[in-house]
Amino acid sequence: MKLGIDIRKRLGSFDLAMQSAIEGDHSGIFGASGSGKSTLVHMISGLMTPDSGELHLDDICLFSSRKRINLSPEKRRIAIVFQHARLFPHLGVRANLFYGYKRCRPEHRKISPEALIEVLNLGHLMTRGVNKLSGGEKQRVALGRAVLANPRLLVMDEPLSALDDSLRYQIIPYLRSVSEEFGVPYLFISHSISEMQLMTDQVMVVSEGRIEGISTPDQLARAGMASNPKGYLNLLRLNGAKKQDGLFHCPWGSGELIISDGKTGEESLFELSSRDIILFKQHPEAISARNLLECRVAELFDSDGRKGIVLESGGKTLVAEIVRPAAEELGIATGTTLFAAIKASAFRRLG
Q1: pLDDT at 252
Q2: How many Å is the Cα radius of gyration of the chain?
Q3: Cα–Cα distance between 198 and 205 in angstroms, integer?
């Protein structure tokens, strides 16, 4: 998927002028509330018309003020999943799910409804009314409805922000697996760096109606490390945990991580703040932290007065964070050996 943007739109005192291009099947638009993300999405999908400029999706011109082209939403074949599921309340799950599929031209029907229902684990919900669904179930049905429309592009506009954390991280694997299983490229819109890390390969950064640039999710997380209250968020998928003495021992790299809140045998997603990793130049004699990793410094980066330390241990990496004077006192440089101490309680299980 390649999306070319060169448009202007004025809404009251808000002036949007964006010019850029993003390419890739798992792309994102990142920005704070009011930055113009949703306005841009509405113009891409055809729900709003730019004042001037051009929009291209692959080799298709969606809008051109110069050529007087403005494709209708149905001709653009761009499906949207919104923050709220927006299911039709008078229709059941099955009717909602097949709404777009029935209106899709037969030659565009490439996705098997049965296969999609299985991937999204919707089989047991098919006979229910939508008022009998949880928030996460509603979003899965909304996602299925959008994908069964067999779109050229799936746009997800803050699809997780209305859900609590437990539901949010349950839904994420479904979002990504649907795209990979059925070859549907997506544009994921969010103000959450961790969602960008989990959902996208590259990100268009938007601020005050302008595109600041194209970034990777990791570059975005590094740039925001100092300003984020949690620092840089290390996201780890761990499985094969075994419980011992009330703690969970999870295989990681060539060793293991010891975690206080885990699940035996099941894969789980964990968050670890860069600020919860304590660094030592030499092996400490005794510490209370259950994790002590011998690491090599693979890379260093700056973030507004703080130093990010990329640690490599057993083929895996973690990002730690310290103030610049501490990095100088410890003599930290690329290739330096450090010991990283992490409390078992520092790992936060997300899903």
Answers
A1: 96
A2: 23
A3: 16
CB atoms within 10 A of CB 137: 21
φ, ψ dihedrals at 261, nearest 5°: -125, 100
Supply the DSSP symbol for 286.
-
Residue 351, classed as helix, strand or coil, is: coil
Length of the chain as a residue count: 351
Query: SS3 string of 80-127?
Result: EECCCCCCCCCCEHHHHHCHHHHCCCHHHCCCCHHHHHHHCCCHHHCC
Taking CA atoms, 285 is separated from 74, 280, 282, 292, 339, in Å, by: 67, 11, 9, 11, 12
Give the position of tokens 């993300």. Answer: 37
d(CA 274, CA 138) in angstroms, rounded, equals 34
CA distance 224 to 231: 7
**Contact of 341 with 275, CB cutoff 8 Å:** no
CA gap 69, 72 in Å, rounded: 10
Write the DSSP assignment of 214-262 as a string of letters.
Answer: EE-HHHHHHHTTTTSTT-SEEEEEE--BEEETTEEEEEETTEEEEESS-
The predicted-structure confidence for 95-112, as pLDDT tens digits, reads as follows: 999 999 998 999 999 999
Tokens representing residue 282 in the block? 């030499």
Query: Residue 129: beta bridge partners?
Result: 92
Q: pLDDT tens digit string along 5-38?
A: 999 999 999 999 999 999 999 999 999 999 999 9
